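Minimal example, chain plus EPU.
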Amino acid sequence: MEKLVIEGGVPLRGTICVSGSKNAALPILFAALLLDGPVTFHNVPRLRDISTAVAMLGVLGCPAGFTDDKGHTIRAEAGRLLPEAPYELVKTMRASVLVLGPLLARLGRARVALPGGCAIGARPVEQHTRALEKMGAVLELDSGYIVGRCDRLRGADITFDFPTVGGTEHLIMAASLAEGDTFLRNAAREPEVVDLADFLNACGARISGQGTDTVHIRGVSGLRGETYSIMPDRIEAGTFLAAAAVTGGDCDIAGCPVEELTAVMAKMGEMGISLEPHENGVAVHRTGPLRGVDMTTRPYPGFPTDMQAQLMVLMALAEGSSTVEEKIFENRFMHVPELSRMGADIKLSGSRAVIRGVRQLTGAPVMASDLRASASLVIAGLAARGKTQVQRIYHLDRGYEGIERKLEQVGARIRRERDEG
Ligand code: EPU
């Protein structure tokens, strides 16, 4: 195993480039299963989750891969598709369940391992399966696998119980090749949903309303391969805004999507951080003290749960007290005990955290538990006095491309080491 060793206290200065979005790339890669002919994806981040998606496509009969060792372009082409998504791959990345709908749409049958829970919550997929059943799929559970069959999927009028990002993406894919019209109501409005719909429309799909709470998909009989560039990663960008701000630094976050980060930037502005959008990204700097704020995570366009842990580090060092309400996942506070080990003053009660700002965090060995918790520990380490060792960083490698290289380039003292412990 590897760990990151960080010597904190250096204000970050310089330019950090944002990579392509992991959470947009995953469903878009799986959408290759729906296409006839080769497809080329640009701006794909080089991450462990992307390798898992590529492996999954290969197992399903859609060979895919980066076109060279360092670049960000993936080519894929669906051949003779196979219906089984094995547990070995689904258990390492739960987004793999999104292949169920495309397989049903193309093959009329599928056998896809049911993902289990994960560190941040139980994360069931009943909204996905109920909606696919409404489209005519017959689904049953067999030895931990969802086994499905159908004739051609039929358009349906589907109302989600709450806006689910994966559920909305899953049904957009399935409905694109269904017979007739599908309406998804109470749909997720996240920019990654929009990116998937835009990609499918480029391939010949007829999707409208993406980015609103009602998405209309008129099924088509076939989709062709295209060339598409994945949107920038708004959460990676937000993580770097937080890292620059917490160190009292002065950075340019190149390629930072501004509109998609409206809620995050508004909250950071309230905390006293200066953010200046410009043509190529956002300039971030902070000279004054951080101020405490109250924040609640919500579906887009609200404050994203994927930035909650990172913002909490800023709160931990802010004047006065702050509160966080986590409304999306039931167990997304795994970073709290680790931040407390570094001197943060945080009280947890159910889905609410009360954070009293302290003057200083101190370096400590800490343990990463999930992707965004890991990012928050890195940010805390950059701000802390002394040495922080973030263990179990394989979580970080799922979602942040070359994080230590990017941070080192703006002056952070950070290195990757083998962890013998
Ligand atoms: N939920 C259900 N039943 C369902 C579907 C969802 O109860 O059938 C619950 C979930 O357990 C959760 C809430 O609904 O409590 C929202 O889940 P959603 O389906 O919106 O999330 P997701 O699609 O599983 C994606 C991102 C997450 C991000 C969430 C929320 C990907 C691959 N993952 O997950 O990203 O936190 O949306 O924005 O796109 C991350 O990148 O670190 C990450 C966890």
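The first strand starts at residue 2 and ends at 7. The domain at 2-19+232-418 is CATH 3.65.10.10 (UDP-n-acetylglucosamine1-carboxyvinyl-transferase; Chain).
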